[in-house]
Amino acid sequence: MFDPELAEGLVDFSKIKANMESTIDKLKQDYTSKITVQILPDALDNIRVTTRSGKSTLAELAEIRMKGDNMFVIDMSSSPKDTKAAAQAIKESRINFEPVVDNTTITISIPKVTQEYRQDLVKLARQACEQSKQNLRRVRQKGMADVRKNKQGRSEDEVKQVEKMIQQLTDEYSSDTDLLVEEKTKELLRK
Questions:
Q1: What phi and psi values does residue 66 have, to the nearest 5 degrees?
Q2: CA end-to-end span of the chain
Q3: Percentage of the chain surpassing pLDDT 70?
Q4: Helix (H, G, I), strand (E, B) or coil at 67
Q5: DSSP structural state of residue 54
Q6: What is the rounded CA–CA span in Å between residue 61 and residue 79?
Q7: Which CATH fold would you assign to the domain 41-109?
């Protein structure tokens, strides 16, 4: 049972909940945009590229277009010095593409969706789920540390109750990640 009033003064319970919600939203976003058998034209837009002048998205640095159903062509002529950095960022992204650089053009062949590719996507989905669980645990740890730091003048029972509330919230969101990865696995393995 959650009693935000009990947590008042010990920990910002709404902030913990918001941070956990944000973690789940990010996992959903990754599952929709990065870990999918359907490659969308905007799949590369938000890849972060580290350039000499800072970080930019690939869409800010290049013109990205689809060539047919199975290839991306990325025109880096507007920022030719960042071509290698862009190719590296694509390679390191969780989309699993192998970029080919030719002067200021990067091409990416979209692999055929084989069973092996689907299995690789399932592995990525599980890794993303585990990363989300780690983020949830970090939020929980910060909340627990705040409770311990602010427990002066509060009964031990109240402190334990608030810690229990934080753990229950963590368990709920963690089980949400399990459901999401289960659904995503079914979706990815469906033919």
A1: -90, 140
A2: 42
A3: 96
A4: coil
A5: E
A6: 6
A7: Gyrase A; domain 2 (3.30.1360)
